[in-house]
Design goal:
Two copies of one chain form a homodimer. In chain A, the strands form two sheets. A six-stranded parallel beta sheet of chain A has the order 2-1-3-4-5-11, with helices on both faces. A six-stranded mixed beta sheet of chain A has the order 7-6-8-9-10-12, sandwiched between helices. The first copy, chain A, folds into three domains: 53 residues, lambda repressor-like DNA-binding domains (434 Repressor (Amino-terminal Domain), Orthogonal Bundle); 128 residues, Rossmann fold (3-Layer(aba) Sandwich), CATH 3.40.50.2300; 130 residues, Response regulator (Rossmann fold). In chain A, 42% of the residues lie in helices and 16% in strands. Chain A contains twelve helices and twelve strands. In chain A, helix 5 crosses helix 12 and helix 10 crosses helix 11. The N terminus of chain A is likely disordered. Chain A starts with 13 loop residues before the first helix and ends in a 5-residue tail after the last strand. At the A-B interface, helix 4, helix 5, strand 2, helix 11 and helix 12 of A face helix 4, helix 5, strand 2, helix 11 and helix 12 of B. Strand 2 of chain A pairs antiparallel with strand 2 of chain B, so a sheet runs across the interface. Chain A binds a DNA duplex (16 and 16 nucleotides) through helix 2 and helix 4.
Chain lengths: 341, 341
DNA sequence: CTGAAAGCGCTTACAG
DNA sequence: CTGAAAGCGCTTACAG
């Protein structure tokens, strides 16, 4: 009995506009796509009618015809339960990506992949759900990259390029990052500057270490292996490795930590054992997550310009899809000085 | 010269399978959709071929035919620059949503809307990009809700239902949350418990206040208006309002803060003026963001079971789309005791 | 239990 | 500058 708003369903199509304008569907389609063949008068008339009728093009139909989805999938891990602060970096990047994508008329799909799943690329590419991928996953990233390269799937990844495969990448300038961080600590007059790194097998970490070494040498300091440890980026490992650092080199007066989360963990340990930050031990983190401004003391850190990273991931991937041009982009970093160093 | 992997493009279609199986496309379609009309033998043969050929159904075609996108859009604000910690709550909820959606074969689209944009619902619904929306936006939420209700768009929103409109909602149990928080503080023996609330016009905040009042009364304490202030959930406003609270009621010995971020801001102020947490002032937050475990002292807070919230948002929206059943779900809360109280 | 046919709404050679 | 027609890959009455 009650009137269902079914009439709303009869979405206005190109055919409706053609009828009203007294032209063919071809003409309407061309006019709406601003095809130069169509006369200005015709175009205006058609656009006016489209506006009046609140015409919305049917994307599935368009995608079917064009054989492209105008959609990019953002690939990350399912946490199964929820996001954790560990994903902050990933999350903060989303804003930049969507805005870069939107500028070019692309949608962003969230894709949480199971680390063991090998079928997701086909399920999205062949199925016409997405035209390409943005890879932020850390776990099993190499395996995913190999898979994607082998199936010639368009994607871009955050991180140092793999030497054997050719694909688009965006990375931060880790060498400079390490140099800035350690240089700042040296400039503060610190003499026994430790390095609390990410996983030692990661190229990013080696580069940061190289920057760190360079800065120490330039400051006339030596790189003491006792003051170098490696963790896994998490705040937990930051705490743990800070402890072993203090065991091995109890006299350290500064530490360059490879992630903000690790730095937060490290600062907690320092506080627990009664060391003041920055008075006794100065701390520099990495990533400039927004969380760095909320902790006490606020964290001096290396900023990767996350919005820019997002935008570049979007733009370079779309460029690759269109031109197959493989880009490797290094994003500049800068030191953000706060209270901890 | 170099062989382009173009042959990969000839995605296998239903017609290919039909040819190979020696049946009609209709039969293949039915078999693949597990239509009971099709004989088991036929089904098995067809499924085997589909598997062998790595068949992936073409989603745009399917969506065009079925007139539904099997996609839900997650609506939030474009930060224009990047996510901030303010969006942590929103972000943490994404995992639960996607998993709930995936279970039912739906994709999740990220939609960053401009607060003033009024066109996004049509651009997604009428265009066949999405079948419904999940609303997490706080700014201008009411305006968006009004718009969606008026155009009869399927959506679900996080927050207390609007009295005049009928739509699906999911909320936390704010009354109990307030009671748990204040009750815990009273149980600790605190006598002058302050309330640092969210915006006073929000129903959620009133409910938390009501819970707070109840708990105080049950503990034989009085609710002193001098110990009640309101902010806007941000850590900045937490700091600011904590200051005015201390001005007005310098003798307070505990504070129930309506968001973890505000609580973090408040704790910074307390530390600055030399009050120890929890010794001098005990602090309870709200939301149980993962950040609460990273701050010092770790934050006692009210947990909203974020993964469950996400899952319910997904499930109830899909249910609404299918049945038009309007649900209002209240998610249980629990107190998570850490160091700050 | 299976098939032929129409249709979903668009785009784009091809022909004027 | 414009139109008729075919086609993208699927689903589903309708007819056996």
């Amino acid at each position: 009995m009650k009137p269902r708003a079914v009439e709303k369903k009869k979405a206005c199509t190109i055919a409706d506009i053609a009828r009203e304008a007294g032209v063919s569907k071809s003409t309407v389609s061309r006019a709406l796509n601003d095809n130069p063949l169509i006369g200005d008068g015709t175009k205006q008339k058609i656009n006016a009618i489209a506006k009046k009728r609140h015409f919305q093009i049917n994307m599935p139909a368009r995608r079917l015809t064009l054989k492209q989805s105008n959609t990019i999938a953002f690939v990350t891990h399912s946490m199964y339960k929820q996001f954790s602060v560990c994903d902050l970096f990933t999350m903060e990047i989303l804003g930049g990506i969507t805005s870069g994508l939107k500028e070019q008329g692309y949608d962003l799909l969230m894709l949480f992949v199971d680390p063991c799943d090998a079928d997701w690329p086909a399920q999205h590419l062949a199925a016409g759900r997405a035209d390409g991928f943005i890879l932020m996953t850390s776990t099993r990233k190499q395996a995913h990259i190999k898979m994607l390269v082998e199936m010639d799937a368009p994607f871009i990844a955050w991180g140092i390029p793999h030497p054997k495969y050719s694909y688009c990448t965006v990375i931060g300038d880790d060498l400079t990052g390490g140099k800035l961080a350690a240089g700042h600590l040296a400039g503060l007059g610190r003499k026994r500057i430790a390095f609390l790194g990410g996983p030692s097998e990661e190229k990013e970490v080696s580069l940061r270490f190289e920057g760190y070494s360079t800065a120490l040498q330039e400051a006339g300091l030596i790189v003491d292996p006792l003051r170098v440890v490696h963790g896994d980026y998490s705040d937990k490992s930051g705490a743990e490795k800070m402890r072993s650092l203090l065991d091995r080199a109890p006299d350290l007066d500064a530490v360059f930590v490879n992630s903000d989360l690790m730095a937060i963990g490290a600062m907690q340990v320092l506080r627990e054992i009664g060391k003041r930050v920055p008075e006794d031990v100065a701390v520099v983190g990495y990533d400039n997550l927004s969380i760095t401004e909320k902790v006490t003391p606020t964290l001096t850190t290396v900023s990767q310009n996350i919005p820019l990273v997002g935008k570049l991931l979007a733009q370079n991937l779309l460029q690759y899809i269109r031109t197959r041009a493989v880009t490797h982009t290094t994003v500049p970093v800068e030191l953000v000085v706060r209270q901890s160093a």
